[in-house]
Every structure is written in C-alpha cells, then in structure tokens.
C-alpha cells in the first residue's frame, strides 16, 4: 500500500483538489472555527496533511504552533513547494505518536477510513493519550449512511473501511472518550446556488430517511455525505 501513497497525488488526488483549493479551505473554517482554541499558541496536530489545505487555514487564522504529518512523500513535497513548512514525513502514525509529546487539538481529516480495521482502535488509544487534559480530537470521514455511501467506501483504493455516525461514535467511546458529538460537514451557504442546492439537498435527505423507515430500520440522524466527530478528553 505504501507504493500507492508514494504516488497518491500524482495518481489523481491532486487534480481535483488543486482546482478547489480555496473552496476546501473555506469549508474548514465554516465547520471547525467554533471548535478551535482561542489561544493562538495552542499545539495542534493534523494527521494526514494531504495537500495542506487545513494547515493553510490554520496559518491564515493566526495559529502558530501547528504541525501536519503524512506518510506520502508527494504530499510533504507539495506542501513545502506551496510554502507550507510545518509538515513532516512519517513512517506510520503510531511510530510518530510514541515520541511526539502532547497536543491541545488533533485532527484527522479523511484519514481514519485509510486505517486497517485491526489498527484503528490502537491508533485512537494513542491519540487519546497524546491529548492534553481537556484537549479535543476531531475526525472527519465519509458517511456510509448517505445516499452515496458505496461511492465513498469504494471510491479510493486505499480505503480499508467506512463509518456511519453510530460506528464512529462507537470506536470513539471504546478509545476512552466519554464527551463527543457527531456533526454533518456542511458547505458554506454564501452563494445563491449553494443556498438553492442546500434546499434541494434537504428534500433528498428527507426522502432517503423515509427509505430507511420503510425498510423497518431506524433512520440515521445524519445522511450528509461527510460527517465529523468532536471528542474531548
């Protein structure tokens, strides 16, 4: 699998994200701003720096003490070429966390689905250990309860698993977190077409929940494409 990560950007990931850079950055602010610490010197870690969009948001928001790590050499090289210097190439998440020290806030944006299932809980336990008291862990991932759940799960060769709001909360609790909340990852409604799209989306989501009901199963609360969980130590 490391062979895939060595070519993760050039194999197609970069083309989509390059054209949507500012849009992706705005999404992070729209969804995460209220969960960020007021202290701009807080120690923040992002696991899976990717193309540095979230790191770029942190820098623009005035945060000073942040770091992004990734196992993809292409990702780290891309970030550095774009002037994002607070990045580090690592061999594995667990190896890095063993000697990393503690953080006030840890992010995993679209990473947990790339972890083998038998390694997920061990990684979450380490993340819990690496949070300062009162620190937060925020995990964003695709929602398999959404209408396009199968595309999310199988749309990337490096995906090992998928989550719903329930299974994500399940592993978070097992990892030791007792305070947490799952949210839909929303698109900023700052343009007319996005407002119209949000209205239509609300109708589609209502119909999709009706399908769950008709199948005699408990409808999920969130059927948006992307979800994130905020857990506090």
Q: Care to describe what's here?
A:
The structure is a single chain. The protein has 233 residues and is an alpha/beta fold. It has one domain: Rossmann fold (3-Layer(aba) Sandwich), CATH 3.40.50.150. It has ten helices and seven strands. The chain has a seven-stranded mixed sheet with strand order 3-2-1-4-5-7-6, with helices on both faces. Strand 1, helix 4 and strand 2 form a beta-alpha-beta unit. The protein is globular. The model has no long low-confidence stretch (mean pLDDT 93).
Going by CATH, the architecture would be 3-Layer(aba) Sandwich
Euclidean distance between termini CA atoms: 32 Å
Radius of gyration: 18 Å
Quaternary state of this entry equals single chain
Structural key phrases:
233 residues; alpha/beta; Rossmann fold; seven-stranded mixed sheet; 10 helices; 19% strand; globular
SSE diagram, text form:
Blueprint: H1 2-6, H2 9-19, H3 21-32, E1 44-47, H4 53-60, E2 66-70, H5 73-81, E3 87-89, H6 93-98, E4 103-109, H7 117-129, E5 131-142, H8 149-154, H9 165-174, E6 179-184, H10 192-214, E7 226-232
Parallel strand pairs: 1-2, 1-4, 2-3, 4-5
Antiparallel strand pairs: 5-7, 6-7
